[in-house]
Amino acid sequence: MNEVAQIIATLKRQLKAQGMTYREVARALRLSEASIKRLLATERLSVDRLAQICSLLGFTLAELTQDAAAAMPILRTLTKEQETLLVSDRKLLLVAVCALNHWSASDIISTYRITRAECVKRLLILDRMGLITVLPGDRIRLRVFRDFHWLPDGPIRAFFMQAGLHDFLDSRFEESNDTLQFAHAMLTSAAMEQLWLEMQRLRAKLALLHEESAAFPLSQRKGIGMLVAVRDWEPREFAQLRQAVAIS
User: pLDDT tens across 14-35, in order?
Assistant: First the structure.
């Protein structure tokens, strides 16, 4: 549901909550009942008309839009089917990733080989998926929580593991902002739990910095990748030297 539809739905909900009929609204606005029904059905109410109906209900247009915004669903993740759709169209995936990184439509078009029509078409798909809201002028409003993430075993993670992980690690990590640190340890279950919590805090910190950086123009921001991985592991060369376990 787009932003206009959400405002109209909120208005209808308020009318029903207060027991106000379309006939009463039509009489107050000096219109026919059929006209009110048509305006609400086609979502073609002007700002003045919206403000008049809000006044009838006893609140302001600003309060209506705030109520509508609060009712808009906010995503923490997509469904497997939605992620599959993104992976099936590289330009759709590109536009989705750029939008999540607070790029404007103009930023996307000026940076990549994608036309405005192609970009807007994909923005509207993302709007229908609930990931963003497309505003007038092709502006983009995110509809995700700060900790939005791809499904752990979903199509997007699989795509980046297959197509992106080797590309990410194929570097000497010698640039000024590059860093690769590797450590090995032997931990108890309690220590592993503490480490997991620290990893969650690091991910939350990255999300916060990402949000704060969105206030700066694209020219002052750089895309980064952060890989944080922990698993039960022993180098294969070491494992091959282990003593054989006797079977009794």
Answer: 888 888 899 999 998 889 999 9
Which pairing describes strands 139-142 and 132-135: parallel, antiparallel, or unpaired?
Answer: antiparallel
Chain position carrying tokens 């700066």: 216
3-class SS at 134? strand
Residue located via tokens 């080989």: 113
Q: Domain spans of the chain?
A: 3-71
Spell out the residues 6+ positions from residue 144 whose beta carbon is closer than 8 angstroms to its own: 74, 75, 76, 100, 131
Torsion of CA 210, 63, 2, 144, to 10 degrees: 20
Could you report the per-residue pLDDT of 36-84, keeping only the tens digit for each?
A: 898 888 878 888 888 888 888 888 888 888 777 766 667 889 999 999 9
- State how far the Cα of 88 lies from the Cα of 218, in Å rounded to an integer: 27
**Encoding tokens for residue 189?**
């279950």
CATH of domain 3-71: 1.10.260.40
Question: How far apart are alpha carbons 73 and 90 in whole angstroms?
Answer: 26
pTM of the predicted model over 0.85:
no
